[in-house]
Design brief:
This protein is α/β, with parallel strands linked by helices and 409 residues long. Helices cover 43% and strands 14% of the residues. It binds pyridoxal-5'-phosphate (PLP).
């Protein structure tokens, strides 16, 4: 039986796997520039801005923040309940991350908390559309305009299409996109920064020019990732999937999503990396299919929203994950794991994710963002990714409704 999961190559269908295999077998094409330019044009046309492409979303964010030329002590307001790579990028760009609490229903930065966090040193607010739930960009825009602060939309978890959602990708002065392994769309790794200000665009273009090519062996490992997981998934039904993945990680065939250095508040390297043609080819194809991918997510979200009707999330959103909050999240995940349902996505049991991040190193004081801390403890998120079937979603709902605490939702 195939596992229900968040992180086992969630985008990798058979077609995806075959197209990666084709790329893998033509190493002489890995660093050409054609797909990179094609992707740049497609993003620029759809999101109306100047686009810089990098090997990951975190590199794109760092490049964007460097392009702002933050002076020492400049503050960037980010939300608590975020990924450690966000404060890491702020610190690496010379800034100080200032944490604002979230709204428990939207899991997004609370505009009132942003107002309280603003000082004369604040240069930017990063709003993260957590799991694809739209942040309150209208209010944030007003606050930023009043204080002459930049608004950056972190769209790592959602990329809008023709059907919306509204308010994402249109309100910020800049946006960051991720094409990481379990993101809205995926080229295994990759990211973009989109800006609508000529001076920042020119500084950002310089950052991209200075970026180096990814080493061939690192790129090869990324290209092997879909193949490794395609093999691993059926093994989970036989109880040996985990052992196979542990082995692949031990021989360094699977690069970690967040490195130990990153968990300790560092960036993996101060030198940014370009998006290689090999990954841009996959990203271009995913970009073209994003409405289809989003529609699949919308269908699954509609099922979850009907089953758990007291969750404050609109039914027609293409969420990257569907959030439930329960006091029993840890036990539920543990029980379901025995049934080949793996709901640990790295965003559970932590306020700055993943678990075991050095909060000291990123200047987060545990307990200072009450809602974010609570959400980190109570979150149980449900997958909506392209390889999660409607049948699996129905099975997951049935399994969850066996738990008394979720039955009434
Ligand atoms: C909110 C958020 N922003 C940015 C990033 C960076 O994306 P990437 O994994 O492509 O570096 C992540 C990924 O972990 C994220 O969760």
């Amino acid at each position: 039986m195939y596992p229900i999961h968040h992180t086992f190559a969630p985008h990798v269908t058979l077609r995806y796997c075959l197209s990666v295999l084709c790329i893998l077998l033509q190493p002489w094409t890995w660093y050409r520039e054609t797909s990179v330019e094609q992707l740049r044009l497609a993003i620029a046309k759809d999101l109306r801005g100047d686009v810089a492409l990098f090997s990951s979303g975190r590199d794109a964010l760092l490049a964007l923040l460097r392009a702002l030329e933050l002076t020492s002590g400049a503050e960037v307001i980010i939300q608590a309940y975020t990924c450690v790579v966000v404060p890491n990028a702020v610190q690496a760009a010379n800034g100080s991350p200032i944490y604002a609490d979230i709204n428990r229903n939207s899991l997004n930065i609370d505009p009132e908390a942003v107002k309280r966090a603003i000082t004369h040193r604040t240069r930017a607010v990063i709003c993260q559309h957590t799991f694809g739930i739209p942040a309150d960009t209208t209010t944030l825009r007003k606050i930023c305009d009043e204080h002459n602060i930049l608004l950056i939309e972190d769209c790592a978890h959602i990329i809008p299409d023709r059907k919306g959602p509204e308010g994402i990708g249109t309100v910020g002065d800049a946006m960051v996109l991720s094409f990481g392994r379990d993101k809205a769309i995926s080229s295994i790794s990759g990211g973009a920064a989109v800006v609508r200000d000529a001076a920042i665009a020119s500084a950002l273009a310089k950052e991209e020019e200075l970026a180096i090519n990814m080493k061939w062996y690192h790129l090869a490992k990324l290209l092997f990732y879909p193949l490794i997981y395609t093999k691993a998934k059926p093994l989970f039904g036989m109880g040996i999937g985990k052992a196979y993945l542990v082995l692949c990680k031990a021989i360094h065939m699977i690069p970690p999503v967040v490195t130990s250095a990153e968990k300790a508040g560092q960036i993996s390297s101060p030198v940014l990396q370009k998006l290689p043609h090999a990954l841009a080819t996959i990203a271009s194809s995913q970009w073209a299919q994003r409405e289809q991918i989003n529609d699949h997510r919308r269908n699954i979200v509609a099922l979850y929203a009907e089953a758990f009707s007291d969750v404050h999330v609109s039914k027609d959103l293409p969420l990257q994950k569907f959030p439930l909050l329960t006091q029993h999240a840890v036990e539920i995940r543990k029980t379901l794991k025995k049934k080949n349902i793996h709901l640990d996505d790295g965003w559970a049991g932590c306020t700055i994710c993943p678990r075991n991040v050095s909060t000291d190193a990123i200047n987060y004081i545990p307990g200072s963002a009450t809602q974010a801390d609570r959400v980190g403890k109570q979150i149980l998120s449900l997958p909506t990714h392209p390889t999660m079937t409607l049948k699996q979603a129905k099975r997951l709902i049935a399994e969850l409704q066996r738990f008394p605490s979720l039955k009434q939702q």
